[in-house]
Write a structure and sequence with these properties.
alpha+beta; about 475 residues; 6 helices; five-stranded antiparallel β-sheet; rod-shaped; Phosphatase 2c, domain 1; 3 domains; Immunoglobulin-like
Length: about 475
């Protein structure tokens, strides 16, 4: 098999090397000589093809990247080096992230039929070779920052596979995504946060100053209001003191007498009362509902009612006095008016009439106890179960009793409200109790009345300790 080529000297030369592509215009005639040989008549000579002598054409094909271009700006295309390696990586700015690669293969027989396959490491996630294509150009647009490697391989018309080449390059990050930029961002963020913190701290300080000024103003207003209220209560105290019996009045009963009077607040709901009628002394210890200002109002009502009944109306029997007092208080407080609701304010009191001429004691009590010590014997006079101003019973349903008995010289009488016995204290935070007070009074019975008062005051303070006082305290002792 070969090609007979006409020579200038009129002879023919037989070329048996591999055929190149037969150009269409060079063939003038084709003649099938036999099953093995085909004659091609060309302008250059006679071409004989023997299919029995066909052999595959094998050539060593090399792959080349012969041109690399930056195409970000179509009006100004920049050409880059066409060779790189791992040790010499081409660094491109972020503005050069659109690149066009042009390939070639060293197979020049029908070069247009050479094929190429490629992939870009760092861009193609699956790292798979592209399909074979005759297009010797590949463009990549808007690549992100990072390192890339373009792998390209080729094959010729006869499927001879060329070598694989690699092109190493790197797209640098834009300045605003560099480590320096991130450091600057961090510093700026820190400065902004610090500035916000300073401004917020200043704002809070100013707000606190304004609030402090408001609090100071309000505090001054509250203090002024408190002072006005306290002054009013102090004035009410002076009024309350004015209605209480003076020391001289009490000494008309006996020279040996003490009054332990300890209000919980400035104004007390406890009060004591004394009057003289028909050579007989009337003495009462009263515990009104509540304490402080409300109790103070009730004490003034109670004092007025006692004076009205005993001094003006001449109601002389203690039980009758309590009954009349209950009726009047229910009327004053509208306790019988169902439309206004039941008012539960009232009084607990013990009323004692002392007939010094006949040495007779008469005691009537509403929910209070009276202790009488005579001849080393202590007697407990219990009160009735009703209080003055019982809102749940009609006046005619309430009956008060009284007890009368003779007394000897040196007889001692003690009246008291429940403030002392109900006080919490001691090691177990318990009430003082009536029995403890009864025993204490019996223990100090032989002391002068002034010393008995001191003992009671000390016992109360010791028992109360750091606990707050829960109620008004009143104890009165009389030695006849």
């Amino acid at each position: 098999m070969g090609e007979l080529i006409y020579q200038e000297d009129g002879t023919y030369f037989k070329d048996t090397s591999h055929f190149n592509e037969i150009r269409k215009l060079a063939i003038q005639n084709i003649y099938f000589h036999n099953d093995s040989n085909i004659f091609f008549c060309s302008s250059n000579g006679l071409i004989i093809y023997n299919k029995n002598k066909h052999k595959k054409r094998e050539e060593k094909v090399k792959t080349h990247i012969y041109k690399v271009e930056i195409i970000n700006n179509p009006n100004s295309i920049e050409t880059l080096p066409n060779k790189t390696d791992e040790d010499n990586i081409l660094a491109l700015s972020f503005k050069q992230n659109a690149i066009r690669f042009s390939f070639a293969a060293t197979s020049y027989v029908s070069a247009y039929r050479n094929q190429f396959s490629y992939y870009l490491e760092g861009f193609d996630k699956d790292l798979q070779w592209s399909d074979w294509t005759r297009q010797p150009v590949k463009e990549y647009n808007y690549l992100k920052e990072g390192e890339y490697v373009l792998y390209v391989k080729s094959r010729d018309l006869h499927m001879n596979l060329g070598d694989t080449i690699a092109y190493h390059f790197e797209i640098l990050a834009p300045w605003y995504r560099t480590y320096v930029a991130y450091t600057i961002y961090f510093i700026l963020a820190f400065l902004i946060l610090y500035l916000l913190f300073v401004l917020n701290s200043r704002r809070l300080k100013q707000a606190n100053l304004r609030l402090e000024n408001k609090v100071k103003i309000r505090t001054l207003e509250v203090r002024e209001q408190k002072k006005k209220i306290t002054d009013s209560i102090e004035y009410a105290l002076q009024i309350q003191k004015a209605i209480l019996p003076s020391c001289d009045m009490l000494k008309e009963i006996s020279d040996e007498i003490f009054v332990l009077y300890c209000p919980k607040d400035i104004v007390s709901g406890d009060f004591y009362w004394h009057a003289k009628s028909d050579d007989m002394h009337y003495f009462a210890t009263v515990d009104c509902t509540g304490h402080g200002v409300p109790g103070g109002f009730m004490s003034m009502i109670g004092n007025t009612l006692l004076n009205e009944l005993v001094v003006h109306d001449k109601v002389l029997e203690p039980a009758d006095i309590l009954k009349a007092m209950n009726s009047k208080l229910q009327f004053i407080l509208n306790q019988s008016d169902n439309d206004t609701g039941a008012n539960s304010d009232g009084m607990e009191l013990s009323l004692i009439r002392i007939d010094k001429k006949n040495q007779v004691l008469t005691i009537s009590s509403a929910m209070q106890s009276v202790l009488v010590i005579e001849n080393d014997v202590i007697k407990h006079v219990k009160g009735d179960i009703y209080e003055i101003g019982d809102a749940f019973l009609k006046p005619e349903e309430i009956v008060f009793t009284q007890q009368s008995f003779n007394y000897d010289k040196n007889c001692k009488i003690y009246t008291f409200t429940d403030g002392f016995t109900d006080q919490f204290g001691g090691t177990k935070k318990q009430k003082f109790t009536f029995d403890r007070l009864k025993n204490l009074l019996f223990d100090i019975k032989d002391l002068p009345m002034s010393n008995q008062k001191e003992k009671l005051e000390k016992a109360f303070e010791t028992w109360k300790g750091s606990n707050r006082q829960i109620d008004d305290v009143t104890i009165i002792g009389i030695k006849l």
